[in-house]
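Hi,

I'm pasting everything inline rather than attaching a file, because the server keeps stripping attachments. The sequence lines come first, and each chain or strand is labelled.
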Amino acid sequence: MAKQAFDIRKHNLVPKHAKVSDREKKTLLEKYNISVYDLPLIRKNDPGLVGVDVKPGDIVKIIRQSPTAGEAVYYRCVINV
Amino acid sequence: MGDLYKEYMDKLPARVMQELKEYLPGSVSQSKLRQVLDKTVEEYEESKAAPGECIGNVSAESIGEPGTQMTLNTFHFAGVAEMNVTVGLPRIIEILDGRKELSTPSMEIYLNKPYSQGKDIKKLALSVKETLFNDIAVEFLINIVDLSITIVLDRGQMKSVGLIPSTVVNAMKKQTKGYIVKADSNEIILKSRSKDVNLNNLYNTKEKLKKVHLKGIKGVKQVLPVKRGDEFMIITAGSNLKEILRLDFVDSSRTVTNNVFEIANVLGIEAARQAIINEVFGVIENQGLNVDIRHIMLVADTMCTTSVIKGITRYGVVSEKSSVLARASFETPIKHIINAALVGEIDFLESVVENIMINQPVPVGTGLPTLVTKVK
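And the predicted assembly:
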């Protein structure tokens, strides 16, 4: 039973995660009139954030595959565990 | 033409855009296309849930009513072999309650080519299955007179899982320091090195030996190679996603477990949300019922907002509510009210339940907007 290195980003269940730039972050928060921590949360060491360089307080943009909309955008705020 | 589509890209969902492109003829004129798109946007905006609509309530009823028609049978024989899978209402309750210990954990292992075409399928399945020492032993005997343990091995069983006596003895020696191990053709005799060994000690060693891991993946209790469509795959009882994904013959992009907590740990919270939707929707479809997937998506989103999976229980999402009265109205009211009184909690009456309790209009639908005055 040989081992392989697997990349979780290739798994069907894992959507694409990307960091939101500071400028986008500002317009997003202004659009919905909220603060960062009103967003849904994601842990800094979440396996889905592999390869995304984030620190607590950043916003992650998640592009989900949706059966109804085709593609759905979701935002999460990074927190320390 | 393409520019016009691009212009409407952020006004309409990707799926609607794709359908429009499919059904509209390529020869449609610029102005006609704009008319169609404008009309579509209008219809789309119209079909959105209005602000203040109590979508949670709608979801609860939409899932709850078909739930009453579901089977209450916990067990159901899925195909061949004695493999149990929890289905129906008990399974839905299990997922939505966010239970960490499932009654029937199970995995679906997809394989890479050429194994997915059936090459060595039995051998692979057996190599994944966990073999404990207990599985290959016929009996464990404790000799009270000379204080030794005799283990009789089942040669037939050992052969079928592909183990030879020397590896078994080696694995055992690691686990039993302080014992002299003597191996016969189909017997292993253990004798303690030290003089002051008592029966109690011996008994504990015996119980420990039964759980010695010999081969396979920890936690995989049963394997079942099956053919689904035109490819072979392995279904297991017991689950260990992290170790299984590391095996080189496993297709690590499709292999899943039915334990959503394991998925959250290995693949992240977003994958867990998708897994919850798939599992719940799978059960509902399996029962021949019809629930819109958006209701399930809403529940899954609620369970996953706080970066870990929270069940719909008083320890899970309900404990997150800011209002004391709302929490008290769910379960164990006295406990919540006493605790809130002790720390002097304030209820701002911002949500539905607490306003019903004190007989005020609830902030839902037309009750939501209020007048704002600028104080000068």
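DSSP finds one helix and four strands in chain A.

If the labels don't parse on your end, tell me and I'll reformat.
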